[in-house]
Amino acid sequence: MADASPLTFKVASEKWEFEQIHELNYQTFVDEIPQHQENEQGRLVDKFHQENTYVICVSGNELLGMVALRSKRPFSLDEKLDDLDTYLPPFQSILECRLLAVRKQRRYTAVFAGLLKKIVYMALQEAHDIAVISGTTRQIRLYRHIGFQPFGPLVGKEGAQYQPMYLDLANAISLKQTSQLFNIKKGSRAEQLLFNYLPGPVSLAEGVLTANSAEPGSHRSASFVERFNCFRTMLSRKLHAGRVQIMTGSGTLGNDVVAAHLSLLPGKGLVLINGEFGERLRDQAVRAGLNFTVVEAESGKTFAEEELAVAIGNISELEWIWAVHCETSTGVLNNLDLLRRLCRRNNLKLCLDAISSVGSCPVDLSEVYLATATSGKGIGSLPGLVMVFCRDDVVFGDRNLPRYFDLGYYQSKQGIPFTISSNAVEALMTAVEKGDWSTRFENVRQWSEELRDELEEIGLTVLADRQCRAPHITTIALPTSVSSLDLGDQLADEGILVSYRSDYLVTKNYLQVCFMGKCRKPTRMMSYFLRQAVEGVGVGKSCVA
């Protein structure tokens, strides 16, 4: 019995689901509504089947309802209405909803409303501005309740007429806050989209979970060692580095490895600080007993060439510079070409924390003495592996460092001196090998610029200056009238995950939007809630007493 199982709303993916879609399509649009010719099979495959995304309602193994979504023009409505766009408000991206059908015994129930609600969620998920549908005249009232607006004349033939309607997604977001149809218990994820704009954990690249869940293999097997070292070579070339060692651990471990190798050098160092992660480098340098001084830049700013040149000239026996490439806390991308040029000119060794930049934006590690990256950031794999890149002339420990820190020991053992998870490595390799970095970088650059323009139009301040801003991290300095904690919680309740709970963000009332891993275009819901917060419409309570 259909009633024995709960209703599930989902995107069709199983063979039996598609079979029942074709059957319900026939029952609705041949048997009941005479739009198509009868056939012996009792199945009707839509002419746009290969382009459709089907949202369905199932109970157990029974299909109760369906709707087809499609964004490729021309639409079915284009064929029924001349100059369709002239009936609609301005838009950038449009979605057509078709073949909305519910089994007779389940009409006027939660199935129909649930499918309409799912249309809204799917449209928001794909960042469409507007959705159009040919609505049955019998359910106009419910369509209106969702937010659909009728336009133009009725379409179709006698006995099968429909009212063209459109849904402005901005209005849908507002309705989502007030309509009982969208009322979901706080904390429930059953009907929520998850838009991940965190700096970690990030949305995973395709194939990562499959690779990670495979049967573990021996890290000593000849096949694994060969594939592992081919990957190390490929990754080094991809980033123009001399070589790379991969070890189990976090980015902090990788930076401790860098500090340990700097301790082998006789000269002094310079640590550059313009945010929280620069401060962490200072702390690690102190713990490693390094002899160094610091140059600091204002939060949201980068380093001036003249200031760095003066500092370099004032330090006798200076041998190295250690800096964060992408200062995650502020969204600043420090000028790697400038640092490389200064180090080349003054015969200095450049070390780089590239944890938040590798895989998120173009990175060229040529001439860099030591650099760190991790699996769980821009690359889009699971956390747990750290990569330490080094030049071919790096000074090794020669037993003066702990074994786990000694890059020379890794090199002498074909990169695998200790146990390493074959699954974690396979997941990392999958993320890198399947990732189209150039396309991702261009998408992120475009989305980032559009997001900044929207934020500034709303009246919000992006912390980093345009000329030094990391494309993949947008740090928003909220006004004192808006609490980052309250607004972040509000967004999380809506399935929009942003960074706001780190101490350094809470202290300064910052909120961050990050494009890392398998990221996607910002949802319009985020801009809507940010605008509501600025305008004081019940979102983000004041953080001022």
Automatic annotation (TrEMBL):
GO biological process: glycine biosynthetic process, by transamination of glyoxylate
Domain of life: Bacteria
Keywords: Aminotransferase, Pyridoxal phosphate, Transferase
Cited Gene3D superfamilies: 3.40.630.30, Aspartate Aminotransferase, domain 1, Type I PLP-dependent aspartate aminotransferase-like (Major domain)
Positions of the Aminotransferase class V domain: 216-499
Boundaries of every N-acyl amino acid synthase FeeM catalytic core domain copy: 21-156
Cofactor annotation: pyridoxal 5'-phosphate
Gene Ontology molecular-function annotations: alanine-glyoxylate transaminase activity; L-serine-pyruvate transaminase activity
Matches recorded under InterPro entries: Acyl_CoA_acyltransferase (IPR016181), Aminotrans_V_dom (IPR000192), FeeM_cat (IPR054597), PyrdxlP-dep_Trfase (IPR015424), PyrdxlP-dep_Trfase_major (IPR015421), PyrdxlP-dep_Trfase_small (IPR015422)
PANTHER family in UniProt: ALANINE--GLYOXYLATE AMINOTRANSFERASE (PTHR21152:SF40), AMINOTRANSFERASE CLASS V (PTHR21152)
Protein name: Aspartate aminotransferase
